[in-house]
Design brief:
60s Ribosomal Protein L30, Chain: A, 4 helices, two-stranded antiparallel ribbon, alpha+beta, 183 residues, globular
Length: 183
């Protein structure tokens, strides 16, 4: 009886830890809108074009804002304080830019990868990384993104950005990374 309960508990835990797989389509079209062609309702009236997320522009003057180093969209990491999943104010303009980008480009998809430093148990860190990713997702939804555009995943302490056992290393490992599908 005890083995049956332990087996059932393990099966439930494994099922709960699974995430929904995403499909990767490198040529997924992204609709870019000309800001000067937006009418009073906020919808584009003319001047829409379809550009693949890989960054190949349809016109010579257009460029992929995700790859422009001067754009806030090129910034993709949010760092957190120890044992916290509160997004700092310094990241809000960057998060707003990503939310507005997703709002304007409904075909765009992203994954938010939550991570922690090495301190704490594996289970605790997986949960904290998920809370961090979910906090960032909630902010993006407030700025116009949709649920289907964003997937969250937690790596806990399994994918450190910087090896080391000091505060500087730990600070770099407490983060969310934004990864656009197709890039």
């Amino acid at each position: 009886m005890k083995r049956l309960l332990v087996s059932a508990l393990c099966a439930v835990l494994v099922a709960a830890c699974q995430s929904t797989p995403t499909t990767t389509d490198a040529g997924a079209p992204v609709e870019e809108r000309n800001p000067s062609a937006v009418g009073a309702t906020g919808a584009a009236t003319t001047g829409t074009s379809t550009t693949p997320l890989t960054g190949s522009p349809t016109g010579a003057a257009q460029a992929n804002p995700l790859k422009d180093p001067s754009s806030p969209l090129s910034k993709r990491i949010v760092y957190f304080d120890f044992d916290s999943y509160v997004v700092k104010d310094e990241y809000k303009p960057m998060i707003e830019a990503h939310g507005r980008y997703l709002q304007a480009n409904r075909g765009a998809r992203m994954t938010i990868q939550g991570s922690t430093d090495e301190r704490g148990s594996r289970e605790y860190n997986i949960a904290l990384g998920q809370r961090r990713a979910d906090a960032l997702k909630k902010m993006l939804l407030l700025y116009g993104a949709t649920e289907i555009q964003i997937e969250t995943v937690s790596f806990g302490k399994e994918k450190p950005r910087r090896d080391g056992h000091d505060e500087a290393s730990w600070a770099e490992n407490r983060r969310d990374e934004i990864v656009f599908v197709g890039e």
